[in-house]
Fold this sequence. Notes:
2 copies of one chain form a homodimer. Chain A is of the alpha+beta class. Helix content of chain A is 34%, strand content 21%.
Amino acid sequence: MGSDMQLKGDARLNERLATSGFRFTPQRQHVYNVVMGKRDHPTVEEVFIRAKQGMPEISMATVYNCLDALVTCGLIKHVNLDRTATRYCPNMKEHCHFYCESCGEVFDVDYTAQGSQKGLKVPEGFRVKQYEVSLRGVCRNCEAKAGRG
Amino acid sequence: MGSDMQLKGDARLNERLATSGFRFTPQRQHVYNVVMGKRDHPTVEEVFIRAKQGMPEISMATVYNCLDALVTCGLIKHVNLDRTATRYCPNMKEHCHFYCESCGEVFDVDYTAQGSQKGLKVPEGFRVKQYEVSLRGVCRNCEAKAGRG
DNA sequence: CTAGGTGCAAAAGGTTTGCGGTTAA
DNA sequence: TTAACCGCAAACCTTTTGCACCTAG
């Protein structure tokens, strides 16, 4: 995984930023690489920590700015499942999120929409831009721990 | 709707609290009444403000405590759709939430599950306790405003 | 009686904002 | 050239915590 490709902007990011009226900056490219580089659901803090490796002078405010831009561009999604920090998800294909009430971790769950939106009675005049499914429960790890008491 | 009934605990609340190992307190009854009394999605702050009418000495910490207890008892749900404050929902029948990206308000949307969970590929060992659907977009009000420019 | 709950106030996150300097387009 | 963006630091808002007192069971 060439971490050198982050020096120049890749085409997709460049194009998306432009479309949404954002400038290309090395920070945005770097944050993009950091978030896409690991298939998990980092908080802003975690993105910040990872981003500092390879760009030590980057600031928290910039990480917020970059993540917001990437969300607006439709390149990542934000995930709010509890009252702690917002998390970010680099997986844009249809899936849903499992939130573990015990450890707070977020897992992707495969999901085929298969007409699930049919049951929705969205009132007249409302414009739906995103449909999202989430699950709460206990993950395998925590189940095992609980079992061992 | 007799606001006097809040003086003594109603049977359902009493029972649910006991089942989950909580004590009955006037504060919990009052917060319960406040949240159930209006079919919307108040923040903790909003619940606090409403609760002070009729119980002026109640504290923020207690409101948090009461809401947490009510959630644990399965009498209300918490709703996290953006990175601002957590909201609470008194509607426990199956429905989903529409979050307006423009004004931040949350609306209930009727919803019949009708096998929508079939498409889910929840990994082995995960225990699902709650299934939730949410929508993002622009509500009728904000659409109208945008239209008028 | 006493574990659990309350109110208060301070602390701890998480997020936003203001500002002077920098830079992509 | 200049509006957008950056880094820094302070402000802001939401949530949690510690503690002395109180109370439901």
